[in-house]
Amino acid sequence: MKKGVMRPGHIQLRVLDMAKALEHYVELLGLIEVDRDDKGRVYLKGWTEVDKFSVVLREADEAGMDFMAFKVLDDATLGRLSEDLVAFGCMVESIPAGELKGCGRRIRFSAPTGHRFELFAEKEQTGKWGIAEINPEAWPRGLKGMKATRFDHALLYGGNLDETLRLFSEVLGFDLAEQVIDPEGKRVAQFLTVGMKAHDVAFILHAEQGKLHHASFFLETWDDVLRAADLISMTDTSIDIGPTRHGLTHGKTIYFFDPSGNRNEVFCGGDYHYPDHPPVTWTADQLGKAIFYHDRELNERFLTVLT
Amino acid sequence: MSQSFRITETRSGKSFACSDEQSVLAAMEQQHQRCVPVGCRGGGCGLCKVQVVSGEFDCGRMSSRHVNAIDREQGLVLACRLFPRSDLAIQPAPSGRS
Ligand code: FES
Ligand SMILES: [Fe+2]
């Protein structure tokens, strides 16, 4: 059931060295720098994104994710969801408008996986980067590197998957699009969507709370993914695995690391989800194929390397 | 001219060359050795944590979650952020990832 949550809005990542991070996110991924604030944070977006920003980088002495945010329909929805979160048992924190430049008031809560999430209703809309609002051209000139089109989703590791699914479905209106079930019938991975995408946020069961597995960016074609792989080699960027295909979501993908060790993905394609679709299920004995459809073998690093 | 040093992983007895401009982990990978686990290569995940048993070194930025000031002092550091200034003897960190 829809609760007025529309889509991923932004993710704030911690980086150890801002100059190196920008070299990676701007020159290599091709995100656009749109603003900076007096806390030293840098605001970025993919060129197709209409809102002002979708990625915020913060220099810190530890890598990882500060929070991920979703945009909701309007301020009344934000108010209602805030009450629903409290009723669910979440501690809800209010963050005033303008704390992130160009973003309206946000409410922040923790999921039972140990991750912080935010909801907001308003953000300055600066339009797609480099093309006109009226009679827009197909794409802008002057894009860099991989030309990432948008921040798409995050995969997060932590505990309490059942309780987290209940929070995201009952309170926030997400659907369970895909899952992995172990031999005892326990869900060890859950891919959640609030629209038609195969996932807007995904969780994998893990002993340690609140970890980031990857932040993912969307590309249009398999050729773009291959070209991203070429750029990863050209720049001697730390690669994880790919280009390959996932069994889960069937996306075509490559994984690599930012200079602070945060994993990134760029991908294209993948399944779609309508609210009447039952979840797609993979069994844990086929986990290798579920994750890497071609290798059909689990890679230890993919499972254990987190920030 | 960059200088080259000898890195020895004392538990496996494996050794490899590493220049002063290269991280110990990068040199190990380049020479197809497998004595330290390779993770993010960016000082963020903690997987490559080693104990420097002897030798002089410098470090790049490392996630404080994995290397605190005491660790750093005791030579418990991340191989992907470890740059030799002399020959080094290293071994896997006692706790592995922290
Ligand atoms: S490989 Fe991740 S910290 Fe060194
Ligand atoms: Fe992904």
From TrEMBL, chain A:
Cofactor(s) needed by this chain: Fe(2+)
* Keyword Oxidoreductase appears in the UniProt entry: yes
Q: What InterPro entries does this protein map onto?
A: Catechol_2-3_dOase, Glyas_Bleomycin-R_OHBP_Dase, Glyas_Fos-R_dOase_dom, VOC_core, Xdiol_ring_cleave_dOase_1/2, XylE-like_N
EC number(s) recorded for this UniProt protein: 1.13.11.2
Stretches assigned to coiled coil: none
Q: One GO molecular function term?
A: ferrous iron binding
Annotated ranges, domain VOC: 7-122, 150-269
Q: What is the reaction catalyzed?
A: catechol + O2 = (2Z,4E)-2-hydroxy-6-oxohexa-2,4-dienoate + H(+)
**NCBIfam families to which the protein is assigned, alphabetical:** catechol_2_3
Q: What is this protein called?
A: Metapyrocatechase
| Origin species | Pseudomonas linyingensis
Automatic annotation (TrEMBL), chain B:
Please report the stretch or stretches of sequence annotated as the 2Fe-2S ferredoxin-type domain.
Answer: 3-96
Q: Name one GO molecular function term.
A: 2 iron, 2 sulfur cluster binding
Per the UniProt entry, the signal peptide is none
The organism's superkingdom is given as Bacteria
Q: Which Gene3D superfamilies match?
A: 3.10.20.30
Mention any Pfam family matching this sequence. Fer2
Q: Which SUPFAM superfamilies match?
A: 2Fe-2S ferredoxin-like (SSF54292)
Query: What InterPro entries does this protein map onto?
Result: 2Fe-2S_ferredoxin-like_sf, 2Fe-2S_ferredoxin-type, 2Fe2S_fd_BS, Beta-grasp_dom_sf
Report what the protein is called: Ferredoxin
Organism listed in the record: Pseudomonas linyingensis
